[in-house]
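Tutorial handout. Part one gives the primary structure; part two gives the three-dimensional structure as tokens.
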Amino acid sequence: MKVSAAFFINGAYSITWVGGFPIAHEQQHADLVDGVVGRSDIGNQANHMQEFKIVGSMSDFDQNVRAEHYISEDVLGADRFLKIASKGPKTKGKRGKSSSEVDFIPTVHVVTHATDAIDLFWSTWKEGAEAALDKNAYLKWDAVGYNSTYASEALEKACTSSDAIVVTVPYAEGTEDYDKMDDAINKCIFEHQKPVFTTNTDTYHNDDVFAYVGSSNYDMGVKCALSILFPTDNDVISGRKALPGKDETDHAMDIQIYWDAASKLDESLRQRFEGLTTTLKIYKEDDKVVPFLPTGRPSCPCVDRYPDGVSTDDDEGLRVTIDGKIYNYPPQYGLETCSRHDKNMIPSCSGSNPPEFCDKTWCYVDPENCDSVETSIEGEYIWTDYAGQEYPYSYETCGSRNLYLDFIGGSNSDGDTGDGTVIGDDKQTIVLSSNWAPNFNPGNQSVFICGDETFSMPHVPQYGQSPWLQGMSSVSAAATAARGVAKRTQWKAFKGNSAASSSSSSYNGPRNFGSFTICLKNRATYMNVEGAIVQCWDNDNNGFGQEIGTKGETRADGCYTAYYSTGGSWDWAWGNAKRPDIYCRVHYNGKQWRTPERTNHNGNHFVETLVEDIPAPHEATVCVESASFNNEPVSGAHVQCWDNDNNALGTPIGNKGMTGGNGCYTAYYIPELVGDPWQVWGREPDVYCEVKYLGQTWETNRNEGVNLDQQEFRFNTIRRETTFRTKIKEDLSKYGKAIVNIFERFNVQVGDTWDVFGDAEFDNDWIVQHPPVKYIGNASKELPVPQMCNEGNDCNKAFGLKTCTKEADCERKKICPGDPSEELYSCDLSTDGEEFFQRGICQSVSATKTKQSGDGSFAEKLCVGHSDFLYDRMYELIIQATEFVDVTSLDSPNTIGYFGDETKQFGAMFRNAISYLHSTGRAVTIKFMFGSIFSLNENPKKILEELTEGLDLKNTNLRIWAGTYRSGSTSWNHGKIIAVDGKKLFTGGSNFYPDHYLREDPVFDVNIIVSNGPAVGAHKYSAKLWTPLCEWTFGGTGTSHVEGAAVNRNGDVEYVTGNLITTGLWDCPPKYVASKNLYEGKTANGSMVIQAARLGLLASDEGHNQIEDGQKSSDLAMFAMMETAEKSIYFSQQDVLPVILAGMVAGAKASGGFDNCSVKLGCSGMTETTFDDTWRMISGIARAVSRGVEVSILVSAPCAQGAGNPNLSQTSNQFNCPTDGTQGDGFDYWNQVYKKHGSKWPPQRARDQTYAHITKGMSPLGAGSSDSRRPGYGILGYGYGWSLENIGDWIFAYYAINKSSRPKTDGVFMSSTQVADHICKKIKIAHTRLNKNETTYMRGDNSGGQVGNHAKILMVDEEIFYIGSDNTYGGGLAEFGLIIDDATRSKDFADNYWNTLWTEARGVNDTGLVSGRENQTKTDIPPCKWKEE
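Part two.
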């Protein structure tokens, strides 16, 4: 081999020439390196991390783990390593040091953006590092790919466990990725005080890192270009000779530059590319220098969108037909970049041994804008919805060979070399990394490697840095710095990475400022001391000297950083040397300390930590007692103390806190930090404290704390009337206490949305479940369905049911057969209808009674079905009223307020109940309050006209009102209550929808009947809903909406809007007046019950903090329940994921989540409220599962419709379900999010890092939505289209984004694979079934409608449960619910409701579970269907 020249540049990269072309010359080192430490691959796939450590002669510890996973300290802990190093007899010398002190062995942690398993550059780099450290230091390695989140987390771990850090930062300054890594590096330097070196990527700038080991990528690109243009002129390449003229190069070939699309984030490569192209274009025409990656050649670029008329969106992507079968491909398939678009794609590239074409880059190109390469449509996948409009594809524009033609049996196109790339004789290909060189013909002399050298390809010309030498230099420097820190020796070189520092001639410009950090810790606790005063000086041997920086306070981390001008004239005693002798004085609570002096400091950043005996701060104690309840201590009150400067509040004193069990809170403060601008400097503060408690506010006497100079001071006790009694918490379980504690934490006003009752009593049949439990487990054909009618002498037209005297009078109902499937909901019943269910039951219906006595006082027999008892239970409750009835729900009976339909069973029941009460002569107030859906505006006058039709109410003693309201466009009532006289309450999930609950394919739901305190609470909730009619000053025409109607003294219905409520004959409806809640604890026959409602946007009307006013009270309560779960959590829900909107509605309304929906149509359509409220509940599930709690989730079958016809109920404004009764494919929201964020998980939101996702701006101490669900106006029935697997996706996504919430193994956060397995083990997900053998309701042997669930149940440990109207998914509506904090009642509910439904939902052998299967005897079903799919 003829070697003509060799040289090193900056000691980190080299060039060698062979036969007129430059080559690398490191082969001579290979055997030596192999003999010392062997070789280790970087990792086994992209975005993976690994850690290893070399300890003496121990074998390499090289374990590959997923990027999200952090493993614990490898093999041995750091202390163990030091013990190994110090084994043997201690040597005693003059200094008397032990070998453990002398033989400190540092650990160097390398965090790189290496990605692929076959990464020639980084595997060689690592070998150099291993050779350099050998037995003198330990090496850890994290290869994180282009993922700044993983890199930042790896840095955090490295900085807490290792002694020095080497890191690459490949991102451009100003990007989010750059800033994220910059924050992590600064935290490592300043908080962990570790030396950090950067390497390889010179685009990151930080004056506080120790050094950059590497070279200038831009300069490297320039020298690559000169090496190509003037390959034999070393003086030109090195810069010792001026650039030749344009006509002095003999290079005649066109040039194409290869840049892998996966590396397009790498700013260093971009600068290398810029230096290369800028220089080449001095000597070549622009069209002779062609960058063809990542977006293809300029003469044949990749298209960034499909042809006009081909409509795809981020939800659905592109459907393609391959061999007659349809597949869903990603929305960006084949677009924008040269990528391996087919990698891991079904059907050909998803197996364990995919064909070669799967790993080749290509893209779609526009034939009208491509004139330099051959394109192809041979074997192209058919675009299912747009056959014949397919764009041609090109591998050649991406520098690849069309191996797909080989796969389908076609022939190669002209120009193929047979080696996997397209390289013609008239062009030279430059690759920007040795990693990509193997993709090209290694024997073809037209390939040039620019950027790094590789000894494995000595016959390929190359110019660049040596990864082997760079690895040696980087870790050697880092290990040296670590030893220096341990020995407290000074780093005698300028810090910062503005230039390559592997050379002795690194340039360092003048510095305008310097900085250093002073920290203070408490010797007794080693805790950080916040609020200490720091002032620093240059000691000029003449008194104090000059101030350095400004006076400041230590932060929460106990540190203060001083910045100073380095251009000043420092140290007067020694002339104008500008080298200060730095020391600092630290003051805290009357004591002072001085730091050691840094003589003639060179400007490098340093950290000095003082560990001292810290004097106790001053204390101000406030105690609160309740004058209402025997002067008992008030716990949970919020306290903030102030220095009164006679100008507003003044300066805060101490932190804000809460009173404890003794009713007291102590604020700690340092007098010297409390300023009072209205007094002479030095005077003591004037202290007072403000106290807030569940909607009440008090102050201490401001005269008590004037000029306060006492070390410990206690204000006179604040003794005030309180609404709530703290003592009641003693009767609550640990779960109930947690709920009240969270209300106190967020200072939620008691009364409107939450309260505690100890007198709740339940009848024997207190659970009102429909369909009744006796039908659960039976076949569909056993379900009795009512016989309906519209006319005839044997028809009760009000109820729409046939009258009867015996069972034989009731006939079986005919319905559509469901075969073919499209006839499931719409067919001609007279010709195609069949009888699949049981005949109705001839039974007396109490709700048919219209009077207390005489005619109309006897119940009529009707042909009822399985659940007609439901409205009978409501009727029997209402007619007991003697004073007051409050009814609230989402909609009026059968939505008569919107569409004026027949009232049917529920409306007839209310009409007859009104008639019955009128006949008694009782003076009863009856109020109906319903929500008012945006753009529909439910009409209360129409409601009352329907409910009083045919009744003579002239001079009645009844007072009847109906109202509707909406707060903004997205919030209205959804709570369901029937409260009677403050004595009885019917509440739960049931609306007044006869077609959904009472017919075939019934929706499941559950309610309870409870007596005493909870009924009073329900009246209060209702009264709050009526405030818009009594207090709003505008009518019903805006975004917010309010309407009201009443029956006047003449028995007529009057209609008014909000601005007329207090005029004329109209009076504001009376409120139920209840006696004060005395919180006397659990009564002899009572149970503890916590009311947990929410007001949504109605809470904002108070003009204060919405959380405090009850905006999200039930959400907080359910979150607290999940936080205290120890064994199990049960959900029985309509869905746990929110409504999905689509199309224009999504673009107009939605702004929530991680998919930036507001700026792009066709996405999920979630509003901020729906996403955030759902995400909070998902977080509660995730956190519980991380603690080992088992979670069971029962929801509606996807796309369940009840008995509604989806052909009528769906519009283009939503995510549509199939209309044939099937479940649909769900909505892969998180896959869309992942792709929108560049195939990585989005960063954690700041809100998600706070408790319960409540920020400080939302509530103190905190550190739209779904439309209707009825047929007729466009939103899904009960299952919102999410698949069961989608639920698992949301939980997995929460873990992926919020890694600190992940479960741990041996104290270490789980990897993604482990998290998926944990979900499969701990979370069971199923949909509602009538019986375990039928996945749907059946039409004989054919499938019928999906089974819907409308319950809103959350049960924890079978000891406490929530029941009400609030869905787990976010809705932003007003809701009502109760939490039964009674283990006996909870066990009763679990046995009679939950266990019955869950047993059937699991299916035969657990085949109904998509995760959490325990019975796996049916082997053809995957053990975790969610994970498999």
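Part three, for discussion. Residues 467-487 form the longest helix (21 residues). The mean pLDDT is 80.
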